[in-house]
Design brief:
The chain is an alpha/beta fold. The chain is built from 14 helices and 5 strands. A hairpin with a 5-residue loop joins strand 2 and strand 3.
């Protein structure tokens, strides 16, 4: 095919932009691949017309990315090991920080991204979350937190909530209390039923970790546990400032919702419900919360884990309280 004939064919197929001077080499190479695949145009003719070298094009195709000078098989293995060890739930950014934390190998996120793209490794998409509505009691409180999830010191603002843990043909319930300064899960309780006591034990265990000079805000939704008379008595005795989401407004307690989403996406949804037993579910939740508190990097904490963040900033928040 002559150069003129190729130009005419490109014009017919509306791909004459291959000749645009504003395109980078990578953009031209990407177009050449598509044109060759869809229209069977010669690679040689397309490269000549686009004024790019065939050797450069084939090198780019072989390496999978335009800026890979050398494929490192050791890096490939490390990235694959971490990707599959964490059940394929993390993308390039989280994996780069986990690799750094556990192997002291400082890989930039874009490097991990390129290897993952070449290897066809993608993070599992999160499932849609379903909100279960429970009946509510008579006691309601103002939304003191008002979606201000930023705290100045440890224990200033706490959030609490309950989620369902489905296994086999049964269901358990998980209650957590989370500190908004560090993101740490202060305490959690698992129960076979929605009795009031496991939630109140959860709250009591959490306050024991907070400086006695602090009067924490404790935010919840309008579930029965948090609108009962027993709850009113409990938070009064423990010295909490109560705060409550507006009815049917789950983003008001988004800090708890995001933790539950992470737990279920990164652990629970990896296996079908029928594969979980009560014992394996409890063990998985315990292991994940320990991982979350002590090892899992969080972007808002400058990619530190909650406990590492507390350790590094302890002098700051203690001084703030005192």
């Amino acid at each position: 095919m002559t150069k003129l004939q190729l130009i005419e064919e490109l014009q017919k197929s509306k791909h004459l932009d291959l000749l645009s001077k504003s395109l980078s080499k990578k953009e031209k190479w990407e177009k050449i691949i598509k044109l060759h695949k869809n229209y069977s145009f010669s690679i040689k003719d397309l490269c000549n017309l686009a004024n790019v070298s065939r050797s450069g094009f084939y090198k780019w195709v072989k390496n999978g990315q335009s800026h890979f000078n050398k494929w490192d098989e050791n890096l490939e293995q490390i990235i694959k090991i971490f990707y599959f060890s964490f059940n394929r739930v993390y993308g390039h950014q989280m994996l780069s920080h986990l690799i750094k934390k556990f192997s002291n190998l400082d890989l930039k996120p874009w490097v991990v991204y390129r290897y993952m793209k070449k290897l066809g490794l993608f993070a599992i998409t999160r499932r849609k979350r379903y909100k279960y509505n429970l009946e509510s009691g008579n006691n309601k409180y103002d939304n003191v937190l008002n979606r201000n999830f930023v705290a100045s010191f440890f224990g200033e603002k706490l959030v609490t909530d309950i989620t369902y843990l489905h296994y086999d043909n049964n269901t358990m319930f998980l209650s957590i209390v989370k500190d908004l300064y560090s993101g740490k899960i202060l305490d959690f309780q698992i129960s076979d039923n929605l009795d009031l006591q496991f939630v109140y034990t959860n709250i009591k265990n959490s306050i024991s970790q907070i400086d006695t000079n602090i009067q924490p805000i404790l935010h919840s939704d309008q579930g029965l546990h948090y609108t009962s008379n027993r709850y009113a008595t409990l938070i009064s005795e423990l010295g909490f400032i109560p705060s409550m989401s507006r009815k049917g407004n789950s983003p008001d307690n988004g800090a708890c919702e995001t933790f539950f989403a992470s737990l279920k996406t990164e652990v629970i949804y990896i296996k079908p419900r029928s594969k979980w037993t009560k014992k394996s579910m409890i063990e998985a939740v315990i292991d994940y919360i320990e991982f979350y508190n002590y090892f899992r990097p969080q972007k808002r904490l400058n990619w530190e884990s909650p406990q590492d963040f507390l350790n590094k900033n302890k002098s700051n928040w203690i001084a703030f309280v005192n």
